[in-house]
């Protein structure tokens, strides 16, 4: 089977891969170790491992094979990690808007644990200026675009079982429309003429390729 690692080369990790068999042994080991260190509250090690030059890890991923989708920031919220650690994770790109399998954001987790208001303020996701209808449309179109990229190498497989698709409900800082012909594909490759090959209304959708301030789950957006 073609692995995600073979497809992506040395591009930035896309943490939406859920199928362990698509990962290399080194990637699985690194992700499990990061999850272990976060679970133990070893934040010094977590910060060391999340070095930007480490191509095996992304701050928004979860333990391989774990159906809870608990990220490092969720774990920090649960434990009431020091504010400087939480700030570092957010600045590193950890999504305050990312939900676990139960639909909880890190803020929700921290609130359930009864942590201090200062931590809750830090974890509060920024409000989205998009309506629910706009978010749903964005999710649908983004999923179509991702399907198009992945249908060929994973033909005959259920893509929703292999990957967790990113939600579009991020907060755009500026709505400068861009189409995929000036974008980057899921594996970090420049897609200079991709829009000409995309199906139907996914070809030129300004809101799909707007410049987001939300490091919106997995695809290089930021939520601050």
Mean pLDDT: 75
Tally the structural domains.
2
Q: Give the overall form.
A: globular
What is the annotated CATH architecture of the largest domain?
Answer: Alpha Horseshoe
What letter string, H or E per element, gives the SSE order?
Answer: HHHHHHHHHEE
Span between N and C termini? Answer: 38 Å
Write the topology of this structure.
Elements: H1 4-8, H2 25-39, H3 43-49, H4 72-79, H5 83-91, H6 106-112, H7 117-123, H8 132-150, H9 159-162, E1 183-184, E2 190-191
Antiparallel strand pairs: 1-2
Helix pairs in contact: 4-5, 4-6, 6-7
Describe the protein in words.
This protein has 224 residues and is mostly helical. It folds into 2 domains: 4-123, Alpha Horseshoe (Serine Threonine Protein Phosphatase 5, Tetratricopeptide repeat); 132-218, no CATH class. Helix content is 36%, strand content 2%. It has 9 helices and 2 strands. It has helices at 4-8, 25-39, 43-49, 72-79, 83-91, 106-112, 117-123, 132-150, 159-162; strands at 183-184, 190-191. It has a two-stranded antiparallel ribbon with strand order 1-2. Helix 4 (72-79) packs antiparallel against helix 5 and helix 6 (106-112) packs antiparallel against helix 7. Residues 7-11 and 171-222 have low confidence and may be disordered.
């Amino acid at each position: 089977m073609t692995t995600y690692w073979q497809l992506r080369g040395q591009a930035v990790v896309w943490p939406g891969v859920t199928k362990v068999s698509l990962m290399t042994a080194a990637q699985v080991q690194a992700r499990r170790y990061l999850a272990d260190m976060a679970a133990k509250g070893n934040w010094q090690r977590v910060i060391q491992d999340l070095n930007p030059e480490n191509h095996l890890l992304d701050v928004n991923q979860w333990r391989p094979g774990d159906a809870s989708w608990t990220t490092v920031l969720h774990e920090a919220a649960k434990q009431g990690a020091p504010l400087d650690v939480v700030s570092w994770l957010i600045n590193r790109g950890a999504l305050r808007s990312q939900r676990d399998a139960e639909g909880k954001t890190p803020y929700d987790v921290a609130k359930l644990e009864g942590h201090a208001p200062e931590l809750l303020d830090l974890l509060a996701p920024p409000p989205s200026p998009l309506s629910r209808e706009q978010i749903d449309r964005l999710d649908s179109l983004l999923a179509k675009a991702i399907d198009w990229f992945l249908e060929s190498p994973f033909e005959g497989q259920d893509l929703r079982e292999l990957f967790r698709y990113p939600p579009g409900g991020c907060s755009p800082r500026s709505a400068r429309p861009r189409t995929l012909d000036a974008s980057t594909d899921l594996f970090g490759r420049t897609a200079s003429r991709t829009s000409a090959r995309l199906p139907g209304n996914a070809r030129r959708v300004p809101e799909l390729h707007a410049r987001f301030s939300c490091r919106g789950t997995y695809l290089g957006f930021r939520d601050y």
